Amino acid sequence: MTSKPPVSDVDAFSDVILADPIPMHHALREAGPVVHLTRHDVFAFARHEQVHAALVDWQSFQSAAGVGMANFRTEKPWRPPSLLLEADPPRHDAPRRVLQKILSPRALRKLREGWLADAVALVDQVLADGGSEVELDAVSALAEAFPLRVFPDAVGLPEEGREHLLPYGDHLFNTFGPQNDLVAKGQPRAAELSAWTDAQCAREVLAAEGFGADIWAAADRGDITPEQAPLIVRSLLSAGVDTTVHGLSAVLHAFATHPDQWERLRGDNALARVAFDEAVRWESPVQTFFRTTTRDIEIAGHVIPDGHKILMFLGAANRDPRRWGADADRFDLARDPSGHVGFGMGLHQCVGQHVARLEAEALLTALTRRVERLEPAGPARRHLNNTLRAWESLPLRLHLS
Ligand code: OW4
Is the CB of 85 under 6 A from ligand 1? Predict the structure, then answer.
């Protein structure tokens, strides 16, 4: 026997919920393993077990119909679908294989020393005209400044127009949600930002060395087609900037509000990567993605019919006490955060995660050299986005060592 799942009429993308989704996450997890969100007509998973299961079962929960609320089976996508994010095997395989190699820990080794030095240079520059205390906005001065300093160069982008990267990403991540005011607000610039991004993906525009050139070299080898190459470069530009910026904001906010954890990191720099992953678990910069059912699926006695949208609350799964224990809400470097779904899981798991971790390690390590303590220096302000958990402003006071 099967029954209808519990329902909720919550608008999961309203300003109030986006500003603080934690109470809704709690309510949805408690309501059951699957909840029908009547306002959006989608089925929500908020527990770690179901989110994880959906992420690894790509046959039953497809990405090719879009990983936003729009169903590509019935609606035309606003941009050509990503060959990575919005594709399933077998179409997904060659692009994934190519990009995975280009962004592998082994391939990143040649960037490591330079990025560590760049982080030291940025931190020295930012702290230069202070005395023993410096006040700054950690979003603009660090979380945005560092990725923008290293990542576009690593891709091989021209200098001109780089200011489009963050607004493009912000709008793109809004479009995975419903057509609400956040999407409307981005609409006037969407065509211009999208055209700029697409133009950067051409071989002639990209530097002779870098991730972009590596992707085109894969086309020369025949590992992907020349038609696929620009779309794979586009994935780097779409997924590689805002995500890391908000991940770095998250870890800096976490340390500013958990001084004991900063002490711990200063005592052992090898914890920088764990700290970043724990911050990704704790904050989940990418809060949500959708899947689409490819058949009737039974979950805990409830049937979700074929062709329906599943909303996976990665942020709720990452704080599910059933998986993380009673202190799931605590930012704690003593925890093993592996198994978090902040980078997804399974064959779509973030292909850029090693790039993000290297950026975080470089920035955190550079900061531990100079900063004894950091604390909030004013009210932190959220930036609302349909998909991203983001800070607009994080005023911090840094006490230098
Ligand atoms: C998180 C992601 C996000 C946005 C765009 C893309 C990928 C893409 N991953 O492949 O275009």
Answer: yes
Which residue minimizes the CA distance to atom 11 of ligand 1? Answer: 235
Contact 58, 325 (CB under 8 A): no
Q: Tell me the CA–centroid distance for residue 98 and ligand 1, in Å.
A: 15
Please report, for residues 61, 243, 250, 276, 331, the alpha-carbon distance to residue 318 in angstroms, rounded to integers and kept in the order given.
20, 17, 14, 14, 12
Per-10-residue mean pLDDT, the chain, length 401: 94 98 98 98 98 98 98 97 98 98 98 98 92 96 98 98 98 98 98 98 98 99 98 98 98 98 98 98 99 98 98 99 98 98 98 98 98 98 99 98 90
Mutate to test the pocket of ligand 1, among 55, 224, 228, 238 (most ligand atoms within 8 A of CB): 238
Do strands 381-384 and 389-393 pair parallel, antiparallel, or not at all (unpaired)?
antiparallel
d(CA 245, CA 387): 14
Domains and CATH numbers, the chain: 7-400 (1.10.630.10)
List beta partners, residue 289.
Answer: 312
Ligand 1 atom with minimal separation from the 85 CA:
10
Supply the pLDDT for residue 129.
73
Q: Is the CB of 286 under 6 A from ligand 1?
A: yes
What is the reported pLDDT for 1? Answer: 79
Determine the residue type at 367: L
